Amino acid sequence: MATKIYNVGVIGFGLSAKVFHIPLIEVVTQFKLYAVVQRNPKPGDDAGKVHPGIKSYRSTEELVQDPAVDLVVVTTTPETHFSLTKLALESGKHVIVEKPFTPTSKEADELIEIANLNQRLVAVYQNRRWDTDFLTLLNLIGKSSLGRIVEFETHFDRHRPQATTAGWKTGVRPGGGAIYDLGTHLIDQVVFTFGMPKRITGFLGSQSENNTTGYEDSFTVLLHYDGMLATAKAAVVSPEVEQLRYWVRGDKGSYKKFYLDCQEDQLKTGRKPGETGFGVEPEERQGMLTKIENGRPIKEACPNVEPLTYSDFYSQFAKALAGKGDVPVKAQEAASVIRLIELAKLSSAEGRTIDII
Questions:
Q1: Looking at the predicted structure, is the pLDDT value of residue 171 above 80?
Q2: Where are the alpha helices (DSSP H) in 155-223?
Q3: How far apart are CA 48 and CA 54, in angstroms?
Q4: What is the tens place of the pLDDT at every residue in 58-113?
Q5: Is the pLDDT reported for residue 170 higher than 80?
Q6: What are the helix (H) ranges across 53-121?
Q7: Which helix H or strand E contains 341, and what residues bound it?
């Protein structure tokens, strides 16, 4: 029996669609890039010309009315995610939503209910679960190489001390701010690894100089577990040659890693999963593992595991469509992350640690 090919309609034709979704759709054989919704094509930025043969729609309503569309991918700004996902689900389409899932957990819960009522699949694109260094860290934890984990730090720090108003991400809007942009990745990694915390403490604000926009460009979120503290942190004032990515400490060893996973940069240059070297970091960027031997710490390089790459998200979704497993990132998991962001914001505003009920 021939493998079913699922037609994919992408809503939006910005960075998210061009870099993080369409290249992955194109390398997963069960999917076909069938249509793109682009409201205002321009010379040199026209989805129909960049991808000849696709259908070009000007509205989501046109897309979801096309019976040939099996899967809709929502890549628009966060405040539109709820309405567009709701429309697609109620039109009988399966949906992949760019992170953050929705600005509020109430909206996320409603979309989960709508998906269940319409018997459609919905997943959230938390691609950082497929960062090769994160998979390496999960492998170390799974093998108990670090022993009993007492501290887990996941960072997304940069040095951009001057405030900017360029781009939609710097505006004050529902689902905006660094904690929705970057915190969704970092908090998701913690919850995926350890489950929901017992308590949460949030510190949100701006480190940029002369930031008059109200945009919160930085955060530190403490996730309290029994016997373990996880820190998710993003900063824009971090003058370092090497930016810390992970620092995880246990009673048998520690893992420290600098630099971000390389897949985003590779995708931006036009490279795709499956090409030789895709997802493979240079040796000088690999993490360091410190182990206790004969009562003394010994440090050694810790090569990354074989990369699965971000395309594995779409491969897993294709299997779910065929009834051969779960979606790669369940909507319920993404809703839990949004709930933690809401509590972190409340904690920061009220200056207190909050119990998670």
A1: no
A2: 178-181, 183-194
A3: 6
A4: 999 999 999 999 999 999 999 999 999 999 999 999 999 999 999 999 999 999 99
A5: no
A6: 60-64, 81-90, 105-117
A7: helix 331-350
Report residue 169's pLDDT band, with 50, 70 and 90 as the boundaries: low
Query: Are the C-beta atoms of residues 233 and 207 closer than 8 Å to each other?
Result: no
Give ∠ CA 114-76-171 in degrees, rounded to 5: 115
Written as six digits, the tokens of 128 are: 């950082």
pLDDT tens sequence across 184-225 = 999 999 999 999 999 999 999 999 888 878 889 999 999 999
Preceding amide of 161 cis, omega within 30: no
Q: Which residues contact 67 (CB under 8 A, 6 or more apart)?
A: none
**DSSP string covering 285-300, please?**
G-EEEEEEETTEEEEE
Q: Look at the chain and count its residues.
A: 357
Output the CA angle 21-23-27, nearest 5 degrees. 115
Name every residue whose Cβ is closer than 8 Å to that of residue 219 and which is 6 or more positions away in sequence. 177, 178, 179, 183, 202, 203, 204, 205, 232, 233, 234, 344, 348
Cα–Cα–Cα angle for 121, 321, 273, rounded to 5 degrees: 105
Using CA atoms, how far apart are residues 357 and 27, in angstroms rounded to an integer?
A: 42
